[in-house]
Amino acid sequence: MTNPLSRLLSRWSSRRRTVAIISVFGAIALFNFLTASPAAAHHPFGGNTPTNAFQGFLSGLGHPVIGVDHLVFTIATGLLAVGIVRGGIIPVAFAATGVLGTGIHLMGLDVPAPESIISLSVVVSGLFLALRQRPSVLMIAAVAAIAGIFHGYAYGEAIIGAEMTPTFSYLLGFTLIQLAIAFTAYVVARLAVAPTQASLQASALPIRFAGFMILGAGTAFLSSVILG
Predict the structure, then answer these.
(1) How many CB atoms lie within 10 A of CB 184?
(2) Do 125 and 30 touch, CB atoms closer than 8 A?
């Protein structure tokens, strides 16, 4: 029979997790509300190409943050890693192929419909999170890797014409910030929603709720691209 103290601690823990969940995923909703259109290519320096390592690094840090479609997908890669064995490969795959995508852009090669694919990647990540039974980690990582190419391609727009030093700094900046965002989302969700391995099943509903929110954001992004 459960004693009163255990019931109190359980109730408090549940309440704390609920507040944390609302705070984390409410932030996603706020971003969706404040943003009217997707951002497939952004220039943190107002369209000016970085001319030195410092500017390149800051531009790389800013690009995935000021582009809400990039930001939401990056957060999603961290959430997708929760509760999956070796789930960390999901955000790593996304960040790694982002560098490849930027390289493709800088070489003057084209990829098909980058804005649409970026928005679609947000839709797919939200769908994966919303599913009761997620696909395998390898399948999710493969999708994240493909998405990374298109997100990275969009990032390349801000660095076209730059010299080698700011270009490398730019690549380093957006790779580090994406990993930081994704793993922060993972850690926050892991601690707030699933503090122990045994409670991962209990965390499924909040994670799925976040997935529906991200799915809605991706649908809005994709609709804007198609109708725009």
Answers:
(1) 14
(2) no
pLDDT tens for the chain, 228 residues long, are: 455 545 544 544 554 555 455 455 555 544 444 444 444 445 556 667 888 999 999 999 988 888 899 999 999 999 999 888 899 999 999 999 999 999 999 999 999 999 999 999 999 999 999 998 889 999 999 999 999 999 999 999 889 988 999 999 999 999 999 999 999 999 888 877 655 444 455 456 778 888 999 999 999 999 999 987
Neighbouring C-alpha atoms within 13 Å toward the C-beta of 64: 31
The whole-angstrom separation of Cα 166 and Cα 139 is 34
pTM: 0.81
CB 70 within 8 A of CB 63: yes
Pair 194, 203: CB distance under 8 Å: yes
| CB 156, CB 162: distance < 8 Å | no
Q: CA-based angle 61:79:68, to the nearest 5? A: 40
8 Å CB contact between 152 and 107? no
